[in-house]
Each structure stands twice: as C-alpha cells, then as structure tokens.
Design goal:
Elements: H1 2-10, H2 88-93, H3 98-110, H4 114-124, H5 139-152, H6 156-164, H7 175-188, H8 191-204, H9 215-227, H10 231-243, H11 250-262, H12 266-278, H13 289-301, H14 305-324, H15 335-348, H16 351-365, H17 373-386, H18 389-403, H19 408-414, H20 422-428, H21 433-438, H22 440-452
Length: 461
C-alpha cells in the first residue's frame, strides 16, 4: 500500500498533457439526459361503467388517489387505503373474479383473517373485471364483507350504514344480511333498533321473500330483550316465531323459561311452555335436567301445580332418552321431590300431577325397590283430598303389599286410620255416614285393623 500512497501524493508533479486519470472518489459528476418522446400517449380505455358512482361526470378525469374515500361506496377503514398501488392486496384483487374471491374468503374465514377479508373486498370493488367494468358483488359476497366487519368489532350503526349501501350495487339484502346486523344489535343491547329491523324485514319480505325473518332473526331479537329483562317484549317475538312457522331455538326457549323462573314469573313460564307444546315443530323442546329440578323446587314452593307438572314431564323425557341411549344413561328423580310434588297436587287438587309424579317415581326406581311408605301416604293423601276414594283405597292396597310385613310397631303406625291414614278417614266422612257406608273397603279395613290390635282394643288416638 506504501507505493500507491506515494504515487497518489506525487501525481500532481508529473501530470501529462491530455492525460485522464480514473478518479478514486465515490461521487461522479453526471448530468442526466431526458429521453425523447416516442409518439403520442396511448389512448384511455373505453368508458368502463356508464353511470357508475365510482366515476366523475367526466370519466376521462378519474378521481385522484387522495380523494378515493370521499365518494366511495365502501367507507375506507383506517389504514386500509394507505397502501401503495403496488401493494399485494391490490394486486390480488385485480386477479380475482367473483367465484375465486368467494373461495379466497372461505379460506381466510377458517383462519379468522377478517381484516384481510375486509380489505380485499374493498380493493376488489374498486378494480375492473376482464370487460373493463367495475367488479360488482352479489349478495353472498357482500354478506362476507358484512360478517368480516362484525367480527372486527363494527358497531350496529356502522353495519346498518353498510347495509343501506347495498342499494348502490343494486343488491337486495337477504335474511342472512339482516341477521348479521341483528347479531351486532344483540351484542350492543339495541332492543328498539332490533325490533324496528324485524318490522323492516317483514315489510320488505312482502315483495322479496328472501328477506323475511327466519328462526335465527327472531332468536336474536328474543335474546336481546331477555338480556335487558324485557320478558313481555320477548313473548311478543316468541308468538311471531310460532305464528310464522319457524322453530324456536332450544337456547331461546331455555333462556326465556330460566329468566321467568329466576324472577318469579311462574305463570309466564307456564305460558311459554304451553305455547311451544301447541306448535308441532316445538313439541320436542326440553329443558336441561338441572333446570327441571330447580323449576320444580321453585314451583312447589309457590304451589304452582302446572309448572311442577311440566318440570316432571321434562324429567320423564330425560329418563326415557337416557334409557334408550347407547350406552344407557340412567336419570332418576329424587324421591323427596316426588313426595313434595304429590303434596302440591293434593293441596291444589291437580289429579294430573298425582299421576305424573307417581309415574316419574316408578320410572326412576326401575322396579329395583318399592316406593317408600312416605310416598304411598302422600299419594293416598292426594287422592283423598281430591275426593277420589277408589284410587285412594287402591293405593292403600298397594301400600299393604309393599310394606305390610314391617315390624309390629312401625306397621301399626303406618296403617293406623287414626294416624297416617287419618286424611283418608276424614275424606270418607265428609258427607256423613252415607259416604262411609258406600265405601265398603274402608269398613272392612277398619274391622281388620281393630281385630289386629292388642286384646281387640283400637289404637290409641
């Protein structure tokens, strides 16, 4: 390196005439020359879309890029159109037709790429197709765009704005379009707006059947009213659901009944169950097992025999379904709950509840053991209170078969007409000796009881 350095320092001493050395400096002094124009500029393509809202009145003067979002059909999201014209998203949008775009959306939906779905749709609607016209989405593509906005977190108001802009593409919103907006209203708790949107769907559906509400539409409105504690308004839409022939979803049914039970609206819960039972499509609806037990407890505390009956009826469905399952799952009603239900039936004079309660108990025991003495006595009391003496004595006969071999002291109390069977005796004497004489079974039973007592003495009262 030393000879080169010496040469560099001494080069000014022997510079030759017309000698040009190669510079060792980085920056060279250069002047660019403008290329000569080759012919005239290529002509603009023909008018791609006459009357399209994406073009000015003078289509040969397109909108500048800076104002692309001012009159756009699709509102520009934050940072969406800050990309350069050579961005991969825009390049992809120019290479897709409607079918391939839908396939791309399906692929991104599985990976939850909602922001990409939104951006690609907005770029695609601003791109030209192979015929030089703006891409025009159909209702299914637009619904994908609405769904992406919902998943990103757009408000119900923003989705409503996007819904109205479907008219610019000459698209009629279908039921799925409205359901996406209803989901946002349910999330945001917009009860009034949801009700108005259902009314709008019913109005538009008179001309366009594809816009009528379906079971999902009604479910969203029912859920949003229940979440706000507006059970009466929810009942209105339950009626609309049933009248329209749609099936009430299991979740909506369960939530409505649970809300009524938890808020002591027991008669309303009965009304909801009865309305669904009258509809053929909703007869199969069944409450969860735990809710059945809770509903029965609450109903019996209030002596609501109808709701108690429905709770036991749902429990019977669970028992039957469990036995028929593979492998079988055995559900069993608590015997104490059934005894309480029989007491409620006796106090409220509900013969259907007596039969239903006993059927659930027998199904739960599965013939492995007999019902307890308390269960038999509760059934006898219920029939006696209802004035159905033949069934009361029939139950007494079953009681004797099942527990007649108990030890002497316990049996004496269980079958004593002056103790445990006193309600039956009282029921027989309501109309004096006429009723007592007409029931020969009671007379015979009393005679047997007296003869079996010690020394022929009747039990002490």
């Amino acid at each position: 390196m030393a000879p080169i350095a010496i040469f560099a320092k001494s080069r000014a001493c022997f510079r030759l005439k017309n000698f040009k050395s190669i510079s060792t400096f980085v920056h060279l002094h250069q002047e660019a020359e403008l290329a000569e124009p080759h012919g005239a500029a290529p002509p603009l393509p023909p008018n791609p879309a006459t009357g399209s809202p994406r073009y000015n009145e003078n289509w040969r003067s397109p909108l500048p890029a800076s104002s692309a979002g001012d009159g756009a059909l699709i509102p520009v999201g934050l940072g969406v159109f800050q990309h350069t014209y050579g961005s991969p998203m825009q390049t992809l949008s120019q290479s897709l037709d409607a079918e391939s775009l839908m396939n791309q959306f399906a692929s991104w939906t599985t990976t939850q790429r909602w922001e990409d779905v939104k951006q690609l749709f907005e770029f695609w609607t601003r791109s030209l197709d192979k015929n030089g016209k703006l891409n025009k989405p159909d209702v299914n593509l637009y619904n994908q765009y609405l769904r992406a906005n919902l998943m990103i977190g757009a408000t119900s108001g923003e989705l409503l704005h996007l819904l109205t802009q479907m008219e610019d593409f000459l698209i009629v919103p279908n039921t799925a379009s409205y359901n996406i907006v209803l989901k946002a209203m349910r999330r945001d708790g917009e009860t009034i707006a949801a009700g108005k949107l259902i009314e709008r769907m019913l109005e538009i559906g008179k001309e366009h059947k594809e816009s009528l509400p379906d079971h999902e539409s009604y479910d969203q409105v029912i859920f949003v009213h229940i979440s706000r504690g507006q059970i009466d308004a929810a009942l209105k839409y339950i009626d609309l659901t049933l009248k329209s022939g749609c099936m009430l979803s299991l979740n909506a049914f369960v939530d409505c009944v649970r809300h009524c039970v938890n808020n002591s609206r027991l008669d309303t819960a009965v009304s909801i169950i009865e309305r669904c039972k009258k509809n053929d499509q909703n007869k199969s609806l069944c409450l969860p097992w735990r809710l059945c037990n809770h509903m029965a407890d609450v109903a019996m505390e209030s002596d609501n025999s109808e709701l108690t009956f429905y709770a036991l009826e749902f429990m019977a469905k669970w028992i039957a379904q469990g036995e028929n399952a593979g492998p079988p799952v055995f559900f069993s009603a608590n015997e104490g709950l059934v005894i309480s239900a029989l007491g409620t039936a006796g106090r409220t004079y509900n013969s259907g509840l007596v039969d239903g309660s006993w059927a659930v108990l027998k199904r739960s025991l599965r013939q492995k053991k007999a019902p307890s003495p308390e269960a038999y006595l509760a059934k006898i009391y219920a029939h006696a209170n209802l004035g159905n003496l033949p069934k009361a004595f029939s139950t007494l006969h079953e009681f004797e078969k099942a527990h007649g071999h108990s030890n002497h002291e316990i049996g004496q109390d269980l079958f004593s007409p002056f103790y445990s069977l006193n309600p039956l005796v009282v029921a027989c004497t309501k109309n004096g000796f006429t009723t007592l004489d007409s029931v020969s079974s009671l007379s015979n039973y009393l005679m047997i009881e007296l003869m079996s007592s010690k020394k022929g003495k009747p039990p002490i009262c």
